[in-house]
Fold each of these.
Amino acid sequence: MIITDIALDQSNRTVSLSFDNGSSAELSCEYLRVHSPSAEVRGHGPGQEVLQTGKEMVNIVAIEPVGNYAVRLVFSDGHDTGLYAWNFLIELAENKDSNWQEYLARLETAGHQRKA
């Protein structure tokens, strides 16, 4: 699967991905922010991940191409260090439901409640 288009809808705080097979996926800015590939989120090795909280209202202010292999997402909270490779975005789209449920479970375990 190949991404053929990426579109930001700031009013809904979502990014839409279109694929070469005609399918599409919609990812929230919060989802993309809390699953950033950056060291700030992922850490520098297994077990060093940092749970991101308070990102319910985060938006993306810019999508910047990086060569032919990735985009840099610039978030309204100032985060801009993760490079979202096309394959990583596809993986996030394919695993959206399970990733999101895992994130919500981690928040609950940490005693954090998402704001409505």
Amino acid sequence: MREFKKYPNRRLYDIKESSYVTVEDIRKIVITGQTIQVSDSKTGKDLTRTVLLQIITEQEGEGHEPILTNRVLEQLIRFYGAPMQNVVGKYIEQSITTFLDHQEKYRMRMQDLSGAEPIELMRKALEQNMEFWNRLAKSATDKNR
């Protein structure tokens, strides 16, 4: 986990690298898959969520399509304080984890396909087509008997 301190002058300090960083630097660290923790330099209060939300806001401000639409945000606000609040957070987290798992499996399948020789892919496709037509012809022949 990468740890950062946020100072009153709004500067962020990377404890591991012993240097000041920007919110953009933290975004890049998050993209690499690292977990971060940001705390207030004076109080020690956890500011991680604030920084992560700032990154999302800046991404949308740069023209990226919002992932959390206004309608989704409104509904999330309605869940705060409601009996299902804890369940909703876990459900969203599990849904994203499942989505990422499926995305990785899809990526691996595409990588397997792209790594194959085009001639080999054509041969396999032709074999599958021939098997299909042979089964179809056999089925038609069996029905006519």
